[in-house]
Amino acid sequence: MSTELIAQNLCYAVDGRTILNDLSFSVKGGDLIALLGTNGAGKTTLLRLLLRLLEPASGTIHIDGKPLRDYSRRDLARAIAYVPQGHVPAFPYTVLEIVMLGRLPVSPFGRIAPSSDSEVASAALRQLAIEHLAARPYTHLSGGERQAVLIARALAQGAGILVLDEPETGLDFGQQQRLFAVLRKLAQEGYAVLATTHDPLRARTIFNRAVLIQKGRIKADGPADSVLTAEAIEDLYGLDQIPAL
Ligand SMILES: Nc1ncnc2c1ncn2[C@@H]1O[C@H](COP(=O)(O)OP(=O)(O)OP(=O)(O)O)[C@@H](O)[C@H]1O
Q1: Block means of pLDDT (10 residues each) for the chain, length 245 residues?
Q2: CA-to-CA separations, 12 to 15, 39, 223, 237, in angstroms, rounded
Q3: ipTM summary value
Q4: Which of 10, 11, 12, 14 to mutate for ligand 1's pocket (most ligand atoms within 8 Å of CB)?
Q5: CB 103 near ligand 1, within 6 Å
Q6: What is the pTM assigned to this prediction?
Q7: Cα of 185 to ligand 1 centre, how many Å?
Q8: What distance lies between CA 191 and its chain's CA centroid?
Q9: Which residue of 39, 212, 215 sits with most ligand 1 atoms within 8 Å of its CB, as the best mutation to test the pocket?
Q10: Domains of the chain
């Protein structure tokens, strides 16, 4: 399982406008990282670079010592997986089918093998304790259940590094707590988990590391409770004062 990603001196610009500026950071197995910054700070752009959906203007990204650009599509899918916000497909696929789709990029010849891939998908559902949902239409699930299914799909892909974009969006408090418990458990099992979030107060209690991005640069990176001080949060979001922590 791939579990170490190192990004060094990343720069990215669009139409001459710098979006990410000399940004370096790393993620390894066991990390549960909150990526925070104001709207437009560059979080999504960074995630897209890590997933090789964008090419940096300069700088390097290595996973387990190998440059990202040297990975085949299939090996990259086995190394790092993206968990989108709970989207709803047009067809009422079952949960098992949705999770099996995670096998598509990694299965030989891009074809799903019904028996072996279904076993991997079932194991991923068990890992998230949602095997009872296997036969349910995905379109009938709650937001929290959908998010868990999409995480299971990423696990079925075989990736050790999980990248999530605002995973708690739209979930009620209880579902958020269950989601974060799942992310904590995966980090404890050795997965590297990196998630963007707009909630620094909760990030302090849930995540073990926080990375703050401001105007395309890393502003702070360290243990969540020491990085996310009242002063740092006020400064990051341009607030005079936040309610006492
Ligand atoms: N393809 C593009 N063309 C032009 N500008 C872009 C493009 N992609 C991103 N940007 C700009 O780059 C900056 C960073 O965008 P990005 O989506 O990475 O921010 P973000 O931190 O994820 O914000 P949010 O919290 O709102 O999702 C923004 O100013 C955005 O307008």
Answers
A1: 90 94 95 96 95 96 96 92 79 90 76 76 89 93 88 90 90 85 92 94 93 96 95 91 68
A2: 10, 17, 27, 23
A3: 0.95
A4: 14
A5: no
A6: 0.91
A7: 31
A8: 11
A9: 39
A10: 4-85+159-237 (3.40.50.300)
